[in-house]
Each structure stands twice: as structure tokens, then as C-alpha cells.
Amino acid sequence: MPHISPDQDLDLSFLYEIADGSTEFIVESIDMFLQQTPQLLDAIETALANGSWLEASQASHKLKPNLGFFGMPISQATIQEVELECKAGAQDTAGIFEKFNRVKTMVNANLVTLKKIKEEKEAEL
Q: Distance between CA atoms of 123 and 97, rounded to whole angstroms?
């Protein structure tokens, strides 16, 4: 079972615990994450680029629980900062972009890892 590592913000302990041995549940959960997360990242990035702070805040808010469910506490905490700063009117836009890009980099690395895990689990079905 993959756990958090220093270079990746990913700990699937919770997913494995609630799956209670169901490989199908793990595959379906990962599949949903793989579908939703890139769309939410794109929505946040587009909103930030357009200076649409409310939209960026709302999309960040939607992404947070996904990151928490998949054991990405660093990304979850950072995207919450993005959400709150955007909600407050984005006084430090450079800082917001830096935080978002950090989250995007970590999450994209985790997407690759999750695709591999999904493929391995699908082979077990």
C-alpha cells in the first residue's frame, strides 16, 4: 500500500481502509479522481489567468475534498490557501500563482502514480 513519501504528497491509507479489500472500489475511486482532478486544475488555472478570483476560489473549494480523500495533505492545505486568498480578493497574485503551480506539479505527479496503481489493480480483477 503506497504511503506518503518526501517527494510525493500521496498516502492512500484511507482509500485502502474504506475499500476494505475491494479492488473494484479502489479502481472506481481512482478512476473518478483521474477524471475530475485535471478538469478542476484546468478550471482553477483558467480562472487565475483571467483574474476570476471567485471562480478560482470555487474550483479550489471543489478540489480540496478530492485531495484529502486521496491523502494529499500538503496539496490540500496549499489549495485551501489559494481558495482563501482568491476569496479575499487576491492581494498577492504572484504568491497565489506560485502556490497553485506547486499543487499542480505535485498532483500531476500523483496522477501518473495513480494511473499505474489503477492499471495494476485492474489486472487483479
A: 39
Neighbour tally for 52: CB within 10 Å: 17
- Location of C-alpha cell 486544475: 41
Which grid cell is 111?
496522477
Of 106, 52, 60, 51, nearest in space to 83 by CA? 60
Backbone angles phi, psi at 5, to 5 degrees: -125, 160
3-state class (DSSP) for residue 99: helix
pTM of the full predicted structure?
0.89
Q: What are phi and psi of 92, to 5 degrees?
A: -115, 80
Q: 57-102 pLDDT, tens per residue?
A: 999 999 999 999 999 999 999 999 999 999 999 899 999 999 999 9
| Alpha helix positions (H), 2-92 | 13-19, 23-49, 53-69, 73-87
Say yes or no to pLDDT of 2 above 90.
no
Alpha carbons 68 and 57: distance in angstroms, whole number: 17
* 9 neighbors 24 (Cβ within 8 angstroms): no
